[in-house]
Structures are given as C-alpha cells and as structure tokens.
Amino acid sequence: MKWEILHRTEFAYVSPVRESFNEVRLMPFASEWQSVDHFLLKVLPAARLQHHHDFYSNVVHRFEIPEPHSTLLVESNLRVTTKPRPPLAATDTPWPLAQIGDAAREPRVFEFLQDSRFVELSPEVWRLALDATDGVTDTWQAALALMKCVHTTLKYEPSSTTVHTHARDVLRDKRGVCQDFAHVMIGLCRVLKIPALYVSGYLATETANATHAWMEVFIPGLGWRALDPTHNRETDETYVKIAVGRDYADVPPVTGNYKGTTERKMRVEVNIKKLD
What we know:
By secondary structure, this protein is of the alpha+beta class. It has four helices and 14 strands. The chain is 17% helix and 40% strand.
C-alpha cells in the first residue's frame, strides 16, 4: 500500500524566544516491509538541517535557530510503501517461555529488558503478567495473552493522559491512549524477560489525524514482531513505522529547548492519504 502523510507541528510563543535547539524524529524506517519513496522536512524560520542515526537506528534531524522568533513550524511530507508481513498463527509456538532468558544473549536487546523512564518493572506488574500468562508455555502465546490483558484491562480515553504519564499511573487509573497501552504492555513483557520496545508511527487510515504507538517483542529465531495492544492485533500494511526506543522518551517527534517564555501554544496536524 502507498501512503502520503503530512505531519505539521506549530509553536506560537507569547513573546519572542531565541537559541532554539531541536531534534526531529519524523523520517520512517526503511526495511523489507516498508520503503520510503519521498521525505521532505521543512522548518520555519528557515534553518540548516543536519541528520544522524541515534543509538536505536532512528533518523534524527537537528537544527538550531539562534535569532529571536515568535513562531516555529516543523512540517514533514512523506510518501511510503508498506507491505503485509505474514502473521504468526494463533497456534504457533516458536519459542518456549521457560527458555526466554536465552534472548538476553542476543545483540541489542539488553536495554529492552530493563526499567525505563515511563516503564517500571514493579512487583505489581510482575503479578499481573503472571496472572495473564497462567498456563501459557510459549513466548509468542504469552505475548498475545499479555496484549489481550492490556486491551481488556485499560479503557481507551482520549486526553486522559499526557506524554509524561508513567505506566504505573495508567495501571492505577486503568485508562489511557495508545502510548499508555504500549508502555503497560512493554512492562508486562519485560518482567517475564521478553525483550520489548516502543514504536512510534502512524496507523494509516483515511480518518487518522494523529500519530500512533505500538510495541514489538523479540522472539528468538524469529526476531522482532509488532503488536498493537490498543487494537489487540498484529500490525499490518496500514502501520507506518517511524522510530523505536525503550519508551516514548526515546522517540518524541519534535523535542528541543530554547531561551525565553514558557508560555506557548502547540498545534499538531496529521493528514494521511492513500495513494493506491
């Protein structure tokens, strides 16, 4: 499937700010399941863009605006082609859960087994994970059971949390948005020694008007498999992957700092169009 996505973030400051330093993670991943056909990033006031790959292989654009300015616009326009990935059947048993500790020997998974800024491996999370996987002997089946647990335990409620909400608070209040569903499931997986990472991107439908978040689990012999606890399903070609990390703190679309007023307004607009 081919998609065209416009993502616009606008900041309006009460009084001029200066020395603004920013990082942007809006360029999609390229893989055998997803190809980037076009990507253009625009910044106003105009600034020189540089880019690099971070520790998690995300493309990070950075720029600075030293002169005073009252507004800031960051706009990405991209076209991407996605392909369906063969799903694992509900009856598949690719790796025994009793041997999942072996996954820690794989390269680049250690950080996805630990606590992170928004995910805490507490006794309460451990107890919930054990209850949700009672009687399950396979790692993939355990991941599906944990996804169902999150989907049924939490209520999706727009504006009930912020990007700074911790998973412990989500579990306490039992409500949240896609970011919170992902954080809670990541914690449940990690306490069982299943490597789990956070994914930011888009759920590419004609009615989508915001970013989306889901997660991936590592299954030895199969690699990383994506699951969306908000919708209780595996991802497909309607998902566009932008960035990955331990949790949201590693993947904000736009982040930075500046000197000046803290009073500002932010407006985010996402438009998704199917091209085929």
